[in-house]
Amino acid sequence: MSVKPSKAMVLAAGLGLRMRPLTDKMPKPLVRVAGRALLDHVLDKLGEAGVSEAVVNVHYLPDQIIDHTAGRKQPRVIISDERDQVLGTGGGVVKALPLLGDAPFFHVNADTLWIDGVRPNLARLAEAFDPSRMDILLLMAPTTSSIGYGGRGDYAMLPDGALRKRREHQVVPFVYAGAAIMSPALFAGAPAGEFSLTRMFDRANEQERLFGLRLDGVWMHVGTPDAVEAAEEAFLESVA
Questions:
Q1: Where is the signal peptide (predicted)?
Q2: Which of the chain's ends, N or C, has fewer CB atoms near its CB within 10 Å?
């Protein structure tokens, strides 16, 4: 089975503290890499994947993002305004659920950045998502070939794509690349207010409904100002 999500949730409400001073007067999703805002890189990929509506949540310097996306047609941007509340990555999705509908949707961090391989990774996610077996399908990047990432990884992945969360002191080969497909049913009974999306990941993992797909291409972790330069170099190499 596969799905063709027509809607997406884009998380753009973070404070971008580690990206200072670039984010002192600008939200992190509008930081430019290779001539385009991080948010535009994400929205472009969603548009190419056939998404018609992207719900973008905002909190920090929200008017800049609202103005920046006002003219978007593909996908059309719907703002989920969180300027008066802090909802976290999970609470932000719960607030946006009425806008996302009942079908599986793309979920993408506004500051994630990757260069596709032979085929677009969002199209690969849609083809691989099986709602009968999965509540979440995460795009997973190999830690060894990712740019700007120096952590211990997030998950190990079994041959069928099932994910196993990293235990404390363990090193695992894959890191979540910030793009996924999720079923709205996953959020049934989710807590109100602020909470982290990792709670939903853990719930799906416990029920053996959390799966991963290995990214084809190169993922860039653009978490600090120094990482912007490394990401731009990778883009230049990809088009050379």
A1: none
A2: C
- Using the CB atoms, write b or e for 198-220: b if 16+ within 10 Å: eebbebbbeeebbbbbebebbbb
Whether omega for the bond prior to residue 191 falls within 30 degrees of 0, making it cis, is no
Task: Map residue 92 onto helix, strand or coil.
Answer: helix
Token pair, residue 42, equals 């994400």
- Strand, helix or coil at 94? helix
Contacts of 219 (CB under 8 A, 6+ apart): 112, 113, 114, 141, 146, 147, 149, 175, 177
Reported pTM: 0.93
Residue 157, strand partner residues: 163
* pLDDT tens figures, 175-212: 999 999 999 999 998 988 999 999 999 999 999 999 99
Region of 76 on the Ramachandran plot (φ > 0 left; ψ -120 to 50 alpha; else beta): beta
